[in-house]
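Q: What changes when zinc ion is included in the input?
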Amino acid sequence: MSGIIFVLIAIAIIFFIKVKSKKKQNKILEEISKPFSMKWKDILKKKVIFYKRLSEEDKKVFEKRILLFLATKKIEGIDTDIDDSIRLMVASSAIIPVFAFPKFNYPRINQVLIYPNSFDKNFQTERFENHKQFIIGMVGDGVMSGTVALSKPDLIDGFDGVRHKKNVGIHEFVHLIDKQDGIIDGVPELLLKHSYVGTWLHEIRSEMHRIKKRKSDINPYALTNNAEFLAVVSEYFFSNPVKFNKKHPELYRYLKTIFHQETKK
Ligand SMILES: [Zn+2]
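A: The predicted holo structure follows.
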């Protein structure tokens, strides 16, 4: 008898899970079918240079990807208010590096936390005098895996409509793409063909050498390791592609191959 009850309970649980996930899927479909508001388009035009340069057709694709990201990930302010503009900046940071990969929607993360300022590795935001290293963005590990944390003022700085080399949002999402194969090591196997890995690592070493000799305008933070190198040059590649191509044509060619995108158009 208890065997039959067990089977019935198992069937009920499976049925409940199926109904729940169907409901969730319908909710997502409903969210991404909504028209993209003019107000949101204006925010993107004003703040996101990458969006501005897209064709009308690609702008629509970008908007759908934004809606899908926002429908599937939670974005939460920690001791700070967040508005649509912040949500759009977070979603743009995520979509820009994988715009050429239409099916990729960051399966490993479910939430993005926005902090009122830079923080330390314990997510403390106060500035202590003897604390020199402050973090402006982080991909969570251990209990925090599935989470990205970003400092609000630094996120805003990256999307001020000006062409520069810094964008903490893009930086952290590039780490997540890199992490997709299991480790953050500067070799995003999701995007990079195996045959390219050797020459890519060689290119990293050459450019690091130039940075050390102060013969490069790339942020020296790229010297930290290969993963930081990839994230730092990606910020530059997506934020100021014409200048990046002019100053670093070889690196530009690699990133174009990695991300399947011609950003300098
Ligand atoms: Zn980093």
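Observations recorded in class: The longest strand covers residues 111-115.
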